[in-house]
Here is the input.
Amino acid sequence: MQYLTVPLGQHRLPPLPYSYHALEPVVSGKLLEIHHSQHHKAYVEGLNKAELKMAEARGKRDYSLVKHWEREIAFHGSGHILHSIYWTSMAPIGNRWETPGTQIHNLMANYFGSFLAFQEQFSEAAINVEGSGWAALVWQPGWGRLEILAIEKHQNFFQVGGIPLLVMDVWEHAYYLDYLSKRKEYVRSWWQIVNWAAVEKRLNLALVGQMPLVIN
Ligand SMILES: [Fe+2]
Here is the structure.
């Protein structure tokens, strides 16, 4: 079986699939530029550093800082993965599906009862994340069904094995510049820019165990 490998310490910041101003007025160009070019970049750099430091320690068989570097790999690694999926979860007008595809819609109806019930639970999960974190719709291959997660930071309360299909960043850096402390307003506005075509595509890939960071 063929698979892609990212060499140790060589993760790269993926380019946005649209311009920094493309998601306005829901997300301003200034916010998106800072979020992508500074925050996401920092996670990529933190992950690369942690992997290389861990490799160096492994070479010396010095595991005195193993807890620290494994935590860094979990934090920055999850931050890099979630942001990469977040960018493709959104798209500008005219370049996205405005409503869920048939397959994801049917799975939502089976598990949550309806699309509106899914949307309500996802929104509430996002609004109620304590501090910084994410709401995520994942495909849980172990159980063959969808699940919603309210992830704290990038890695706490993540269910092992879940493959993210749709993620919403509710760190303050994702909305504060535009919405100040009104996270609820950001959450409600955000549904306008969800690209359901990407969710359907990610579902089809998740069903065969794949989770690419960049999708076309
Ligand atoms: Fe973020």
Remarks:
- Residues 91 and 165 are 15 Å apart (CA to CA).
